[in-house]
Design goal:
The protein has 6 helices and 12 strands. By secondary structure, the protein is an alpha+beta fold. InterPro entries: DNA_helicase_dom (IPR003840), P-loop_NTPase (IPR027417), Pif1-like_2B_dom (IPR049163).
């Protein structure tokens, strides 16, 4: 486990270390960062774009050391490349600083454990296997379901988790297709017809 050093842009006696450690602004690594060999992570800062170390790059930890993390890039042109991630000094952006009421600084590895990601963050990536969890919330905008289901190379490498259904709702008199829909094995797929019309030149 790695812990950060944090500070705020106010008098130290006004902000307790415990509070600083509990604050996690967006795109900030946690104060307590639990890493081990083989765990997937995502990079939270642009460290070296030429070497493939950009914000959002997915990596897998190969060695976890006290001052540097050795990792392997998982996606993009540099996939398979071994890289080294140092601890860096991070500072909240203007928006986060305004919300907090102070500018926060944290010395930490710019990584977040990435066992899962949002559909939007997965856009543009090709993955060996994909699991899509729609059990609590269905997709909510045009094209989102397509993005989720098109990340895998083939359909047999996709699993979708949908809300559980009540077997009492089954109707054996329905045709097979309607029975599948009635059983709850469907999910909404919002389509903005104006987008389709624009694509067809209407």
């Amino acid at each position: 486990m790695y812990t950060s050093r944090a500070g705020g842009g106010m008098a130290p006696e006004l902000i307790s270390p415990e509070y600083l450690h509990s604050v996690n602004p967006s795109n900030f690594p946690a104060h307590h960062l639990r890493l081990k060999e083989g765990i997937p992570v995502v990079l939270l800062r642009n460290l070296d774009p030429d070497a493939g170390l950009c914000n959002g790059t997915r990596l897998i930890v190969s060695h976890a050391r006290s001052r540097v993390i050795q990792a392997i890039i998982l996606t993009g042109d540099r996939a398979g490349t071994t890289v080294f991630i140092p601890r860096v000094r991070l500072e909240t952006n203007a928006n986060s600083s305004r919300q907090l009421g102070f500018t926060m600084r944290r010395l930490q590895f710019p990584l977040r454990v990435a066992l899962a990601m949002t559909i939007n963050n997965a856009q543009g990536q090709s993955l060996d296997r994909v699991g899509v969890d729609l059990s609590l919330h269905p997709v909510f905008t045009h094209g989102q379901l397509y993005v989720a289901l098109s990340r895998a190379m083939s359909i047999d490498r996709i699993k979708v988790l949908l809300p559980s259904r009540d077997p009492a709702d089954d109707d054996d008199d329905l045709p097979a297709v309607d029975r599948t829909a009635a059983a709850g094995f469907v999910t909404p797929n919002p389509v903005f017809r104006s987008v389709l019309r624009a694509m067809n030149g209407e």
